Amino acid sequence: MRQFDFLATWDDSWRIVEALLEMKGVSLIPDFNYSEPEPQTVSELSQEVRDKLQQRAQLFIWSDSFSLHPPVLKRIEGRTSGVWYSVTAQEGGPCLSLMLPACYHDGGHLNLASGTLSCQKLYLNPNSGNWEPPTIELVNGFKQIVRLLKNSFLQRHQLHVAVWAGKNAIHEIVENDARVHGYGLD
Q: SS3 sequence, the chain?
């Protein structure tokens, strides 16, 4: 599995999501629980979408250049709340997964956690029924988005290891003693 980890505040994350929304041919599908087997495509970063993403911070990235099939939603039987549907990254697509860093305040401190852009090791091709490795187009899409993140939103910052972090996250670490989770710092 290809994976790129980074630190970011919510403000850093919103800038990243807005940049992805501006990419030609890219669709963002949040990993929400859906009442129908039809996913919501995010076209703008409204306050409602921000609020939902702060509760469930995963987005799937679909692109005309690397996604060959529509999203697949799995039916989930709830114990008390009936039936809902959830997007699966392993089927359809292929797609990329973006887990936004779930930062939060506790005891007057900002707590930063890692966000991740990833690409599944194998995808189920709905036409053949076979598990297949990522296409070269998907790998190139992953690399393109990593370059975008590194060149526009993130900087290398030295903790006990070098990490990629958003500008606001670095400011919070340096100026306001934000706590960093992950990277062996817990």
A: CEEEEEECCHHHHHHHHHHHHHCCCEEEEECCCECCCCCCCECCCCHHHHHHHHHCCEEEEEECCCCCEEEEEEEEECCCCCEEEEEEEEEEECCEEEECCCCEEECCEEEECEEEEEECCCEECCCCCCEECCCHHHHHHHHHHHHHHHHHHEEEEECCCEEEEEHHHHHHHHHHCCEECCCCCC
Residue-range domain boundaries for the chain: 2-180
Angle CA 154–90–40, to nearest 5 = 70
The answer to whether 149 and 17 are in contact (CB under 8 A) is: no
Pairing of strands 179-180, 109-112: parallel
Residue 90 · residue 81 · CB < 8 Å: no
pLDDT single digits (tens) 118-150: 999 999 998 999 999 999 999 999 999 999 999
Q: How many CB atoms lie within 10 A of CB 179?
A: 16
pLDDT (tens digit per residue) in 32-83 = 888 888 999 998 999 999 999 998 899 999 999 999 999 999 988 766 667 8
